[in-house]
């Protein structure tokens, strides 16, 4: 089914849903999670679940395959009786996925997206300021005495990658520093992606003293791969992650990272959706931005 046909058909489903919406609520919501087995997504979902349970709402959760977002949302809204939808978009949302959400959104049933970057869709959303977070990572490493800093990043198609890289560049520019092109290490938001970035790091003749990784999983993969070659963190290279997943504090060395309030993000997403379901006229704010802060641990060394 072409995107245009799917959207047209879905709008028909949505119009039917809207007609039935006022008659009877199902007290059920659909949660679309791209990788519910991932620690990051499970923490987001925990917040959604706890808020839903407190309001006596049931949850139907679906886990689309890569590229399957439009078919999954279409089929679920066609067959499932739900009052609203939460999309745990996170790292897996590409520009195409954002475009799809924009086309699908009509308000019936309401959709709340946990997007990674403001301004991509008009769908109600819970997000963080990724550009500022990237800036905080860069500034921390600079304050710790580092000048040669690399960034291991995720896929180009993801807005979150671009935002974090822009913030990192801004911190470097404010300090009068430039980032060498070879210090942008392509990897991904996964442990294998971090290991790939580590191989790129090892191939450099003039290695950076610090690396800002795209997320905690990639940072752990990066450090694990370096250890196989006798490269020590933080003695030989400092590493900063992103997300502050539960394993970050348990890893050796404990990972310096940017903390996302993941469970609170899930809770806020469900609260916003409930407001849109039960009393949409009273909802004043449909874009909620939550703060991010740096957690210093043991993976960054201060240079003299």
Automatic annotation (TrEMBL):
Domain Transcriptional regulator LacI/GalR-like sensor, first and last residues per copy: 139-300
InterPro entries: LacI/GalR-like_sensor (IPR046335), Peripla_BP_I (IPR028082)
Keywords: DNA-binding, Repressor, Transcription, Transcription regulation
UniProt GO MF annotations: DNA-binding transcription factor activity; transcription cis-regulatory region binding
Keyword Cell membrane (UniProt): no
Stored PANTHER family: HTH-TYPE TRANSCRIPTIONAL REPRESSOR PURR-RELATED (PTHR30146:SF148), LACI-RELATED TRANSCRIPTIONAL REPRESSOR (PTHR30146)
The protein's name in its UniProt record: LacI family transcriptional regulator
Signal peptide from the UniProt entry: none
Lineage summary: Bacteria, Pseudomonadati, Pseudomonadota, Alphaproteobacteria, Hyphomicrobiales
Organism from which the protein derives: Pelagibacterium lentulum
